[in-house]
Write a structure and sequence with these properties.
It contains ten helices and two strands, in the order H-H-E-E-H-H-H-H-H-H-H-H. The chain is an all-alpha fold. A two-stranded antiparallel sheet has the order 1-2. A hairpin with a 2-residue loop joins strand 1 and strand 2.
């Protein structure tokens, strides 16, 4: 009886910890701390704030027409890179996971080598290799060099997530499918992957959030994403505090929105 009473508060605490409101609370606390430290640092430097000039770098309305500023244009490029890289990362991750589970020596070795090389080298080095070597040899545009680099980088982590979820599906499910005459393709498509999907969703959501954050790395190869646009505006206006705080807020809005979407999908496809 006492253990039951104790378990109810614990269950409520766990539910709160996993709730969307808790995520928003974390976001607000973290943003407040960063903002307070920034304001304190600016005051110690006798910095003159110029927030009134920031909106024009986000949007302007001229003769009734909405014109996006450089920061919003950067957001659109960031989102474009993220969704393209996200789709490719999922496909690469799925193919790599199936190779690791194929049981063939060559397939398993190729998949293992790819995962270990990608996971144990810096993404900055990888994007420079993609741009200066692979893209230069194959004639790939710089934006697609960034997309491919992000896709292969996140694809390595995605592969391990998918492999783990597939392995977690009960062995009896596979045996039942085989006894019914399912081919290997049908077995994965109709039995294994649908059951593995709810197990994949939480970590795959983290991968997608990381994609948005890691997309800033393409700024080193002069792709005009949000980070590149922010650097350009700062160099032209010297409003470092205002522009970088605004840029951070834009990234936070994108990642928190994506986290909320993933949380909704988790609830919809929750494992019972």
């Amino acid at each position: 009886m006492n253990s039951t009473r104790r378990s109810k508060p614990a269950a409520r605490a766990l539910a709160w910890h996993r709730s969307v409101w808790f995520e928003w609370l974390q976001f607000l606390v973290l943003f407040g701390l960063v903002l307070a430290l920034t304001i304190h640092g600016a005051q110690s430097m006798d910095y003159q704030w110029k927030w009134a000039k920031v909106p024009k770098y986000i949007y302007r309305v001229i003769d009734g027409e909405l014109i996006w500023g450089p920061l919003m244009k950067g957001v659109f490029v960031t989102l474009d890179i993220a969704w393209k890289a996200g789709i490719l990362a999922m496909l690469i991750g799925l193919a790599t996971a199936l190779l690791r589970l194929s049981g063939t020596i060559v397939g398993s070795a190729l998949a293992w080598t790819y995962i270990e090389v990608i996971r144990n080298t810096p993404i900055l080095v990888q994007v420079l290799i993609f741009y200066f070597i692979i893209a230069a040899v194959l004639g790939i545009p710089r934006e697609w060099a960034g997309v491919l680099c992000l896709a292969f980088y996140e694809g390595a982590f995605t592969a391990e997530i998918i492999r783990g979820a597939i392995v977690a599906v009960a062995k009896g499910q596979r045996e039942a499918g085989q006894s019914l005459g399912f081919s290997r393709v049908d077995l994965y498509r109709d039995i294994v992957l649908p059951q593995a999907l709810p197990l994949m969703l939480p970590p795959l959501g983290g991968i997608l959030v990381n994609l948005v954050k890691h997309s800033a790395i393409v700024s080193v190869i002069a792709v005009f994403d949000l980070t590149t646009q922010a650097r350009t505006v700062v160099s032209d206006t010297f409003m470092a505090f205002e522009i970088w705080l605004t840029t951070a807020a834009m990234y936070l809005v994108m990642t928190v929105t994506l986290s909320l979407l993933v949380a909704w999908l988790e609830r919809r496809y929750k494992v019972h």
